[in-house]
Design a protein that fits this description.
It is a single chain. The chain is α/β, with parallel strands linked by helices. It folds into 2 domains: about 5-200, 2-enoyl-CoA Hydratase, Chain A, domain 1, CATH 3.90.226.10; about 200-250, Orthogonal Bundle (Lyase 2-enoyl-coa Hydratase, Chain  A, domain 2), CATH 1.10.12.10. It is built from 12 helices and 9 strands. It has helices at about 30-45, 70, 75-80, 85-90, 110-115, 145-150, 155-160, 170-175, 185-200, 200-215, 220-235, 240-250, and strands at about 5-10, 15-20, 50-55, 100, 105, 120-125, 125-130, 165, 180. The chain has a 6-stranded mixed sheet with strand order 1-2-3-4-6-9, sandwiched between helices. Strands 5-7-8 form a 3-stranded mixed sheet. A hairpin with a 2-residue loop joins strand 1 (about 5-10) and strand 2 (about 15-20). Helix 6 packs across helix 7 (about 155-160). The longest helix is centred in the first third of the chain and has 16 residues, at about 30-45. It is globular and about 65 Å long. The protein binds acetoacetyl-coenzyme A.
Length: about 260
């Protein structure tokens, strides 16, 4: 991995940590930072030590969105030529589960980054918002698509057009976060959650993530075919043999990830 300027990473007990690290700018996401986040996710995805990726922010907030200072003079041609959102597409290809631990401001591109995670644990002080409309633009890193697929058109359109701040309770009610925790317990609770997934057989975990994600884009029939193929594939794994043998022998399985 190249030297990281805007994030910090570490690995401990099967969890690959990514900390957004521009706390003075409320972790506003500049292009280099997004590139570092995606490259680190991809490196963790290939690292057999890592079972689960945990993404959070240093300092008060998760992220106040894309870096407006960097964007203020952008033009359509430069954005097309640099293909600046391609990094965001790569994030969606990460196979291991990504858990976001969010707090305080989760705005704009920060909200889009959160919605790119597979699970969100939110501190009770979290506020989600898409303020782009107030800047004369709109979400550009998946916000209109991901939020709509998660909560339906009615609320997505209302929230994106009003830039309303959505609190953690409402987020839980609409099902786009998994859990609300006290701010001081955010990391502890998220790590506990990450550990539960980290101890599952890794091949089954990635096939399940892939299959559930297909349900969002595929028809029921196509999704069922995809699920079935993944189910069959898992019978080629050692972990399937170990998991079922352990059940029959009435003992705990010892999964190796193979
Ligand atoms: N870009 C650049 N800098 C930002 C930033 C952003 N998105 N958000 C906050 N900052 C900077 C502020 O400029 C400030 O820097 P200085 O100390 O150098 O002045 C510092 O972070 C702290 O921010 P505030 O003093 O404003 O903190 P606050 O607590 O008073 O307000 C806030 C917090 C309500 C989140 C406010 O900072 C804010 O409204 N930020 C902008 C939010 C926003 O519009 N995000 C969407 C960006 S567009 C986008 O994300 C497009 C996309 O889809 C990819």
């Amino acid at each position: 991995m190249n030297a990281l300027q805007f994030i910090e990473t570490s690995i401990e007990d099967g969890i690959g940590y990514i900390f957004l690290n521009r706390p003075k700018q409320l972790n506003a996401l500049n292009r280099q930072m997004v590139s570092e986040i995606v490259s680190s996710m991809e490196a963790f995805d290939r690292d057999s030590q890592v079972k689960v990726i945990l993404l959070t922010g240093n300092g008060k907030a998760f992220s106040a969105g894309a870096d407006i200072d960097e964007m203020v003079n952008d033009n359509p041609i430069s954005m097309e030529l640099t293909n600046q959102f391609a990094d965001w597409d790569r994030m969606g290809l990460v196979k291991k589960p990504v858990i976001g631990a969010v707090k305080s401001f989760v705005f704009g591109g920060g909200f889009e980054l959160a919605l790119s995670c597979d699970f969100l644990i939110a501190a009770s002080d979290t506020q989600f918002s898409f303020p782009e409309v107030t800047l004369g633009v709109m979400p550009g890193a998946g916000g209109t698509q991901r939020l709509t697929k998660l909560v339906g058109k009615t609320k997505a359109l209302e929230w994106i057009l009003t830039a309303e701040r959505i609190n953690a309770k409402t987020a839980l009610q609409y099902g786009f976060i998994n859990k609300i925790v006290a701010p001081e317990l955010l990391m502890e609770e998220t790590v506990d959650f990450a550990r539960k997934i980290a101890k599952q057989p890794p091949l089954a975990v990635r096939m399940i993530k892939e299959s559930v994600n297909k349900a969002v884009d595929y028809s029921l029939y196509e999704g069922m075919q995809y699920e079935r193929k993944n189910f069959y594939i898992l019978f080629a794994s050692e972990d399937q043999k170990e998991g079922m043998k352990a059940f029959v022998e009435k003992r705990k399985p010892n999964f190796t990830g193979e």
